[in-house]
Amino acid sequence: MANQPLVTARATRLSQLLMFVGCMFIGIFLIGPLLGVAALMPFYDDLSLQGIQNFIQNPTDNWEGRFAILIIQGVTALVGFILVPLLYLRYFEARKFGSLHERKTSFLPILLALAVVLVVMPFMSAIINWNANLQLPGFLSDFEQMAKAKEEQLAQLTAFLTNMKTGGEFFFTLVVIAILPGIGEEIVFRGIIQKKFTYLMNPHVAIWLTGFLFSAFHLQFYGLIPRMLLGVLFGYLYYWSGNLWLPILAHFLNNGFTLLMIYLYKTGVVSVDIQKTSYGVVVVILSLLGSAALLWVIRKLTYRPPEPVGVSMEYAEENN
C-alpha cells in the first residue's frame, strides 16, 4: 500500500477528461458566441442587444441572417472545437496537435477511408429515413412532439443555410459546415475524448460511447442513430490507423460531398436532390457489404495491436 502512487494514471485521465469538457463548454457556449457576435460588428452598424435577440429568435426572416448565422457558427466552431482544445492540450497536458497522431499513415488508407464515406451513403440514407420516421410509445408523446418540432425547425434552418446561389457562397458555407467541423469535431471527439475513454474502458466501448456523445451533442433525436453510426465509423478509422487525419478527411468528405450536391442541385447543374434520394433494398445491402469490405481492408492495412505495457508506463511515455 505504501508504494502505490497517491494519484493513479486512471484518475489522472479522468480528471483531464473532466477539465477538457469544462474548457470546451466554455469555448462553445460562451467565448465562441461572444467572439462570433463581435465578428459581425463590422458588417452591421445597428447591431444592438435587442437586434441580436430578435435575430436569434427569427434568423430566417431576412437574407442577411444567413451570413450572420454562418459567421457566428464558424467563429464558435473555430474557437470552441479547435483553438480551445489545442490550447488545452498545450497548457494543461503539455502536448501539441501532432501528439494526437500515434502513427503515420499513407495514401492508400486515406483513399479507402474516403471511399467508405461514399460507399456507405445509401445504407446511411436508409438509416436516416428509418430514424426520421420512428414512432415512440404513447407515454412519450410529449417528448415526440417536442423532438419533431425541433427537427422541423432545424430542417428549415438547414435549408436556409444551404440555399447557395454563387460559388462564393458555396465556398464560405463549405468552410463553416464541412472544413471547420471536420477538423474540430474530430479533434474533440476522437482525438481527445475517445482517446481518454480508451484508457478508462474497453476500446470498443469507448468508440461506441464517444459515437453516442458525438450524436447527442447535436441535439437531434430523429438523427441520433445515423449520426452515432457515423461517429462510430470515424472512431474505428482513428482506432485502427492511429492517425487523426483519416477521420478528419472522412468527416470533411461526408459533409462536403452532401453540400456540393445540394449546391449543384440548387444551381441546376444536376437534377438529383440528394436530400430526397431514396435507394432500393439491393443498393442498401450492397452499400453495407461494400463499406464493410472496405473497412476490413483498412483494418488489415493499418491496425497494430497495442503493446502489452501497463497503463502507468503508457501514460508516462505519452507525456514525456
Q: Describe the sheet with the most strands.
A: none
What's the average pLDDT? 87
Number of helices: 12
Helix content: over 70%
Mass-distribution shape: globular
Report the strand count: 0
Secondary-structure element order, N to C = HHHHHHHHHHHH
Number of domains: 1
Question: Using only CA atoms, what is the Rg?
Answer: 21 Å
Class computed from helices, strands and strand pairing: mainly alpha
Distance N terminus to C terminus? 26 Å
Low-confidence stretches: 309-320
Beta fraction: under 5%
Give the gist of this structure.
The chain is an all-alpha fold and 320 residues long. It has one domain (9-318). 73% of the residues lie in helices and 0% in strands.
Provide a descriptive summary of the structure in words.
It is a single chain. The chain is mainly α. The chain has one domain (9-318). It has twelve helices and no strands. It has helices at 9-40, 49-57, 64-92, 107-119, 121-132, 141-161, 167-200, 203-217, 224-241, 245-266, 281-302, 311-318. α7 (167-200) runs antiparallel to α8. The two termini are 26 Å apart. Mean pLDDT is 87; it is low at 309-320.
